[in-house]
Amino acid sequence: MGKKDDLMIQIQQIMDDRVELERFIITNSNLPGPRGNLELTFAFAEVYDNFEVLLDWIEISEDLADVNDPRSFLPFCSAVCIGRIFTKTGDERIVPILKTLANDGRWRMRESVAFGFQIIGENDFNELRSIFSDWIETSNNLEKRAILVSLAHPPFLDEKNAEFCFEITDVVLEQMDRENDFDVLRRGLSFTISVFTAANPTLGFNFIKKWTGKDKIIDRIMRENLKKNRLARMNPEKVRDLLNEL
Asked: Is 35 helix (H, G, I), strand (E, B) or coil?
C-alpha cells in the first residue's frame, strides 16, 4: 500500500468528525516549511466531499492564517478538493470560487487553484478549455497566471491540447498589464511556455520565434524558457539558434 492509499484510509476513518479532521490536516501539513504535504492534499481530494465544510475552510483568509500558518493548509486542501468535486458534480459554484482564490495573496493558495483546475483538465480537457476560453478575456494578471500554470500540466498535454495553450498565451502576451502583479505573471510565463513547447515542439519553437524581438520584457521571458532543460534536451541546436537571436 502506498503513502497516498494509507492517507486516504486515515482520512476516511475520521472524515465525519470535523474537529479531528481539521486537527489531522493541520498537524500533518508540514507547515511552516518550504513544502506542504501534497500527498495529504491529493489523498484528501480523492475521498472528501462535504462541500459546506470545504466552503467554511476556504473562508480562512490570509489575515487569519498566513502562508506559513498550518491552518492555511485547510483552504489549500479545500481548493484542490473542490476541483475533484467539480469533475463528479459539475457544481456551478466551484469555478467562480477557484477564480476568486486565484487572487489570494498567499502563493500556496494560488498553487492550489492550479492543482484544482488540473484535476478538472485531467478528467475532461474540453471542460477546462471552455472554462479558460470564457475567462481569459476579462482576467487580471493573477488570473492569467492561474490559467497558464494550470495548463502547464504534462499529463494532459499532447500536441492538440498544446495548440490551445499557445492560443491562450498569445492572448496573455498581447493583453498583459505590466503594472498590477506583473512580476507574478512574468514568472509564470517564464516556465510555462517551455512546458507547452515540450508537448508540441514545432508549434512551440515557432511561437517563441514569432514573439522574439517584440520588446525587452518578452525577450527575457523567451530567454528564460529556452534555458529550461526540457527544451535543451529536446533540440539543443534550435535552442541555441533562438537564444542567439535574443
From this structure: coil
Closest residue by Cα to residue 79 from 103, 62, 55: 55
Distance CA 200, CA 205 (A): 9
| Whether pTM exceeds 0.90 | yes
Angle at 159 between CA 170 and CA 101, to 5 degrees: 55
Give yes or no for a contact between 105 and 139, defined as CB atoms under 8 angstroms apart. no
State how far the alpha carbon of 64 is from the alpha carbons of 21, 51, 73, 110, 111, in Å: 19, 21, 12, 17, 19
CA dihedral 208, 210, 212, 216 (to 10 degrees): -110
Report the C-alpha gap between 17 and 181 in whole angstroms. 40
Tens-place pLDDT, residues 123-147: 999 999 999 999 999 999 999 999 9
First vs last C-alpha separation in the chain? 50
- pLDDT tens, residue by residue, 48-103: 999 999 999 999 999 999 999 999 999 999 999 999 999 999 999 999 999 999 99
